[in-house]
Specification:
- By secondary structure, this protein is α+β, with helices and mostly antiparallel strands.
- β3 and β4 form a beta hairpin.
């Protein structure tokens, strides 16, 4: 299961002044758009927390080793634990000025259903 977890989006790579086109190229189409005064905002549901790259690979490798040494019995423990700790999507709002330059990125603290 670990190998199939979605990669979280690193929100720190989106900086004020970035072009809206570049954000869209990275994230795709938003789930909704809204106006915040004179500013246009795009709303996304994104995975923003969880292990990435090397960490995810190390967990998956550890599970494989545990499966080999326990003849697969480790899955009895790992599967429910992974299901309980699965990544959740968060609402993330990207707002742009009139020139389509990124003004702000705001992430909700609460996870949303898929």
């Amino acid at each position: 299961m670990e190998a199939n977890r979605p990669e979280p989006v690193d929100l720190t790579k989106f900086v004020p002044g970035e072009k809206k086109f570049d954000v869209l190229a990275e994230l795709g189409n938003p789930v909704a758009s809204a106006q915040d005064g004179p500013n246009a905002c795009d709303i996304y549901k994104l995975y923003t927390h969880g292990p990435q790259g090397i960490g995810k690979g190390a967990i998956a490798a550890g599970e494989i080793v545990a499966d080999v040494f326990t003849l697969g019995l480790a899955e009895v423990i790992f599967t429910p634990v992974e299901a309980a700790t699965k990544n959740s999507k968060h609402t993330v709002v990207f707002c742009y000025d009139q020139d389509n330059k990124l003004l702000s990125v705001k992430e909700s603290e609460t996870a949303v259903d898929h």
